[in-house]
Amino acid sequence: MLVAHHSAARFEAEERGLGDVLARFPEPDSDQLDVLTLIDMSTSPKGRRISVQERLAEILERYPDDDPVHRAVSRSVHTPTSQRAGSGMPLLRQRRGLGRCPRSVGP
């Protein structure tokens, strides 16, 4: 299931001692994971389009330093997938014919 591997899910599962549970779900291919991460990391909790840097700051501000989510996101920002999301992955979007990311659908 693709959503099981959302941004930083592997790190969060490790932080919570649930790595074995996450391992039950097949890992998506790298292109799927890149797209999922880009979408997750460029969408605010209210569904607005934001930069990856804004999203990371929002997550780290919302969760205290000792929270598993805060620790997981802090650990995940140096992974290749997160770094590609931070660049907007223009080559991936071009290659997949995705064009530009849609604007927010909500107010």
Explain this structure.
With 107 residues, this protein is mostly helical. It has one domain (2-96). It is built from 7 helices and no strands. α3 packs across α6 (80-86) and α4 (52-62) packs antiparallel against α5. It is globular. The relative contact order is 0.18.
Concise summary:
The protein has one domain.
How would you classify the helix and strand content by structural class?
mainly alpha
Number of strands: 0
Number of discrete helical segments: 7
Write down the Rg: 14 Å
How far from one another are the termini? 30 Å
How many domains in all? 1
- Average pLDDT across residues? 77
Indicate the low-confidence ranges by residue numbers.
88-107
Q: Major β-sheet, in short?
A: none
- Quote the beta fraction: under 5%
The string of secondary-structure elements, in order, is HHHHHHH
Task: Indicate the percent of residues in helices.
Answer: 40-55%
Query: What global shape is seen?
Result: globular
State the assembly state of the protein chains: single chain
